[in-house]
Amino acid sequence: MKICVTSQGDTLDAMVDPRFGRAPYFLLVDTDTMAFEAMVNTAVQAPGGVGIAAAKQVMDAGVGAVLTGNCGPNAFRTLAAGGARVYTGVSGSVRQAVEAFRSGGMTPDSQASADSHSGMDQQA
Amino acid sequence: MKTHPVIAVASGKGGTGKTTIAVNLALALSVNGRAVQYLDCDVEEPNGAIFLKPDFDSRMPVYAGVPQVDPQACTGCGKCGALCQYGAIVSVGGNVLTFEQLCHSCGGCMRICPAGAITEKQLEIGLIEQGRAGEIACVQGLLKIGSVRTPTVIEQTRAKMNPEAIKILDAPPGTSCPVIAAVRDTDFVLLVTEPTPFGLHDLKLAVGMVRQLGLPFGVVVNRADSGDDRVEVYCGREGIDILLRLPDDRRIARAYSDGRMILNVLPEYQSRFDQLAEGIGL
Question: What is the ipTM of this complex?
Answer without folding.
Answer: 0.79
